[in-house]
Design goal:
globular; 24-stranded antiparallel β-barrel; Immunoglobulin-like; Ubiquitin-like (UB roll); 5-stranded mixed sheet; mainly beta
């Protein structure tokens, strides 16, 4: 015999000793609600799967989701989990999962709108963690976009009345048509001496889903794991790790340096400018590069305010090369070698590489390149050493036919990586390479060095020279050096060390030796960071030496950052000082911070001083504003004789089937937010991104082949606009513009007073023929609140033993909530 607790709902309302009707039958059990459609987040065994609209019905005094067999299969249940489940049709509703899957359970949390489904692991597919079914991948919308980045400066010298200016513009544009991606990357450079337009690359790309690969035709770059990367014009098929689940996925570098003034920093890869902007005095970190290939040394030029320049090399490669057991990574490339300093008739070539994971944490890899005047082959092995880290060792043999002779040689490369979590040490990259005198890589074998004779470098000095001279690092000695001497050995290392409560250390070093030369190329960057009572301290040392210049660059700097939250929110007082072997000591004090509601305005004010011979007083002011339609920057700086105004703008425009949307600078894969008529709604977790007047916004960066949850802040919706669902999940393919569609309802907020029929407390009400658009529960006074209502219509009211319809009409009014009395019959 079973008994339940029972509460008489009629006791809720007593008017003149007469009980009023009450119907709370939909709520008299724990977790029970009115049947209907609910937007629900689905979790299977505690893992988020998706958000979807699910119809719930009442069966045996509990809410039951009407999910089909195909839904459970998409959630990860095996198609042949049990005989009963296997015999169901794909579109057949599974009313009670416990009847087909033993120990299967579900629970619905109405307050959180969360459906938890529990399925024993033996009935689940053995998918890798983070697996996303390719059926969920979306190629996105057809679209056209233009992404721009502009920086410029005007400077004038009060000592010699000499003015100067320069500007840089990079454009990344593209077209999407179904799964096809057409891309172009171009740059324009302008100064007093010259102007040039350079199309860096143009290519057509699409993914081959069943191969987990990408296919490219046009101008692109070869992969870098086996051979050094180079530019080509042709075709390529390569495996894409992004298409693997997160747990099976196998990199742009971080560039650090020190500026002694308001300096312009230019970064090149393969002779192309890939980044240029202005930095304040002191240590700088650049972590937002958009590299043109997956490896290859980066050439960094720091152009100080007084016209002096420093050059250093930042190695860029990925290591080690380990792959999971049974995983094959490959590339097939064929076409024409392409470079800004290539020979008049660049050769045609073919290249293949492969990397395969074997048992016992072992990886074999290799490849070959062949062309008319060059052949090379590579073979290597990678090995996981457990607690000792991972290493790779390979050898490349090359046969090169130069204009005057034939050279043969070999290059041996060793790489090592290791994290020591207990000690906080990370060897992110340690590598050594030795090449014999007759070895040339494919880039070196095809460089046109006939026009770069090496001269006596004694009278050249890269630190101080006329500003109209060898601008942007195009010093003839710098270019000639690499043409006259081939590489002998290279050592590079990156180490970071956590010291717990005492801060952290980082060291990056690079050394390159050449045949027939005693001198070497070398750069070292060392830093220590710590925090004491919310005050941040940073010490940095930078050393640079190049063989074609006699002098070395050495800079030591100290930076102290004090938070001013009590006086000015999100602000810091900054002290810095630096000393160089070529300049006197420089010190400065400044104020930096962020402002506005979403911290999308940042600023930096700084006043510096050096000895009179080194320039005396100096200062700068920089402001940066990040808006939905772009990012804008302006700055002013001065020194003893030099004044400069610099400025920049970054942004994009996207033409899509629903119109044109302006956006912040775009990444490779994007999302279009669509919430019609919901203007100025913030997109959460994205600084400065709001929907435009039509209700559209572009999220510039999302992860391809990965579930991306997009949420809107609905706290400040426009008057008379309701968003039915504030969260969407999208899984875009590479380069796609996926759409996160947020259905909206435009209408009035209404407090409807029902008369006529004796409508009980707890009755449900909704707009007739649109139960999911506007719904509510009738209170004890015969009132129901409904939103998103048209100016006139019919409301359907239902309860356990009856129903009625209430036609209504709303008079035009500016009131936030309209009050309407109507008859329900």
């Amino acid at each position: 015999m079973l008994a339940d607790d029972y509460f008489d709902p009629w006791s809720l309302e007593v008017h003149g000793h007469k009980n009023k009707s009450v119907d709370v039958s939909n709520f008299n059990k724990v977790g029970q609600q009115a049947p209907g459609d609910y937007i629900s987040e689905v979790y299977v065994n505690g893992n988020y799967v998706k958000k979807m609209s699910i119809q719930f019905v009442s069966r045996a005094d509990k809410m039951v989701p009407l999910l089909e067999k195909s839904h459970y299969i998409n959630f990860g249940v095996k198609e042949n989990a049990t005989p009963d489940f296997m015999h169901l049709e794909n579109n057949q509703v599974v009313y009670d999962i416990t009847q087909t899957i033993p120990d299967g359970k579900f629970a619905f949390d109405f307050n959180q709108q969360r459906l938890d489904i529990s399925i024993p692991q033996e009935y689940m597919r053995k998918d890798a963690q983070g697996y996303v079914d390719p059926k969920e991948w979306s190629d996105g919308l057809n679209m056209l976009f233009l992404n721009y980045g502009y920086s410029g400066a005007h400077s004038w010298n009060t000592h010699n009345a000499k003015n100067n200016y320069n500007s840089y513009l990079n454009l990344r544009s593209g077209v999407n048509l179904a799964a096809w991606r057409l891309r172009n990357y171009s740059a324009y450079n302008h100064s007093l001496r010259s102007s040039n337009w350079n199309s860096i690359s143009t290519y057509l790309q699409r993914d081959i889903k069943w191969l987990r690969s990408q296919w490219v035709i046009g101008e692109s770059y070869s992969p870098s794991e086996v051979f050094d990367s180079f530019a080509f014009r042709g075709v390529q098929l390569y495996s894409d790790d992004n298409m693997q689940p997160e747990s099976l996925r196998g990199f742009a570098p971080v560039v650090r340096g020190v500026a002694q003034s308001n300096a312009r920093v230019t970064i090149r890869q393969n002779s192309n400018i890939i980044w240029q902007s202005y930095v304040s005095p002191g240590p700088f970190t650049i972590d937002d590069l958009y590299p043109t290939s997956a490896s290859g040394d980066l050439s960094i030029t720091v152009h100080e305010a007084d016209g002096s320049e420093r050059h250093f090399i930042q190695p860029f490669s990925a290591v080690p090369i380990m792959q999971r057991e049974g995983h094959l990574k490959y590339s097939l490339t064929a076409g024409e070698y392409r470079s800004t300093n290539a020979k008049e008739k660049p050769p045609h070539f073919a290249q293949f590489t492969s990397i395969y994971g074997l048992p016992w944490a072992t990886t074999l890899y290799g490849g070959a390149i062949t062309s008319n005047d060059y052949t090379a082959s590579n073979m290597g092995i990678g090995k996981g050493l457990g607690t000792l880290g991972a290493i790779s060792l390979d050898a490349t043999f090359a046969n090169t036919h130069l204009s005057d002779d034939r050279q043969q040689g070999a290059s041996v490369r060793f790489q090592y990586a290791k994290d020591l979590p207990l000690s906080g040490t990370s060897f992110t990259l340690t590598g050594y390479r030795y090449s014999s005198s007759g070895y040339y890589d494919f880039n070196e074998a095809n460089s046109d060095c006939d026009n770069a004779p090496l001269q006596n470098a004694d009278h050249y000095n890269s630190h101080y020279y006329d500003e109209e001279g060898w601008a942007d690092g195009k010093h003839p000695q710098y270019s000639a050096w690499h043409c006259n001497y081939n590489k002998r050995s290279k050592l590079q290392i990156n180490i970071s060390q956590s010291l717990g409560g005492y801060g952290s250390l980082h060291l990056s070093a690079y050394q390159q030796q050449y045949w027939q030369v005693d001198d070497m190329e070398r750069s070292i960057n060392f830093g220590y960071n710590t925090s004491l009572q919310s005050i941040n301290y940073s010490v940095n040392y930078a050393y640079t030496k190049t063989p074609h210049v006699q002098d070395t660059d050495q800079i030591v700097s100290l930076t102290i950052q004090v938070p001013l939250a009590r006086l000015l929110p999100n602000s810091w007082l900054n002290f810095s000082g630096s000393a160089s072997n070529h300049r006197d000591n420089v010190s400065s004090v400044g104020l930096s911070g962020t402002a506005l509601a979403n911290n999308n305005l940042s600023y930096n004010l700084q006043q510096g001083y050096a000895k009179q011979g080194a320039g005396g007083a100096s200062g700068n002011a920089i402001v940066d504003y990040k808006a939905s339609a772009g990012e804008y920057r302006a700055g002013y700086n001065y020194s003893r004789y030099q004044h400069q105004l610099n400025y920049g703008a970054m942004g994009s425009l996207v033409l899509h089937p629903h119109g044109i949307t302006f956006s912040q600078p775009l990444g490779d894969t994007m999302v279009l937010v669509r919430a019609p008529e919901a203007s100025n709604v913030k997109v959460n977790n994205n600084t400065g991104i709001y929907t435009d007047s039509a209700g559209y916004a572009v999220i510039p960066y999302v992860s391809p082949y990965h579930r991306n949850r997009i949420t809107l802040d609905t706290a400040n919706l426009p008057h008379n606009v309701e968003i039915l669902n504030d969260t969407q999940t999208v899984v875009p393919t590479q380069g796609a513009l996926a759409m996160a569609d947020f259905p909206t309802v435009s209408g009035e907020r209404v407090m409807l007073i029902l008369q006529g029929a004796d409508v009980p407390f707890g009755a449900s009400a909704h707009l007739a023929n649109s139960p999911s658009m506007a719904a509510g529960i009738v209170n004890g006074r015969g009132q129901v609140y409904l939103s998103g209502m048209p100016l006139q219509g019919v409301v359907q009211v239902s309860w356990q033993q009856g129903s009625c319809q209430a036609p209504y009409r709303i008079n035009s009014s500016n009131a936030p909530v309209q009050t309407v009395t109507t008859e329900c019959h």
